[in-house]
Amino acid sequence: MTALASPRLSGLVRYGAARAVALRTPRCELCALEIGEGHRHVLDVPARRPLCACRACAVLFDRNAAGGDHFRLIPEGRRRVEGLDDTAWDEIGIPVGLAFFCQTSDGDVRVVYPGPAGPTEGTVDAVAWARLAARDGVVTSMKPDVEGLLVHRMRGAREQWVVPIDDCFRLVAVLRTHWTGFTGGDAVWVEVGRFFDALAANGGEP
Q1: pTM beyond cutoff 0.90
Q2: Residues 6+ positions from 147 with CB-CB distance below 8 Å
Q3: Given strand 71-73, what is the order of strands in its sheet?
């Protein structure tokens, strides 16, 4: 794990996270400043956990060197992926129809399957991923760690988006909240459908 750019910054982050938990109010998890709706998120890369960030911290971590390899600002843009058909997914061989993919700074690609008990993670063959990414330029433009390729191919759906990684975690929360029984029940798939409908209806905003 790479340390933050300075011991002072590292201490500030630890203090902010502890204060945000202790105060139980909407606060920046980096410096403990109170924040409102519409705030940005920073990814704790080693923990793979998004943190709420005030405007000042978002601006700070928008500079790649500020957080080293530890913290990165999560982008806000969302792009639809059109160039991946059934053949592309058959080649990569994912066993389920709801998943997201994320490429690390080291070049590894992880696939995560949301489920009722939380996310289950697997690895993706590098050659298979390269073939899939070559089919659509949007996939090759993904930012390591902080963006994911989100795929919904359940019950006849064909939705594919490159989204901020916190959107992927939001989808995980949808499944954990609404899943019932062995197959999930109808309600969870209604909510998943609403999540993707909102992406399309609001120009990429869930």
Answers
A1: no
A2: 75, 102, 162, 163, 164, 165
A3: 49-53, 40-44, 71-73
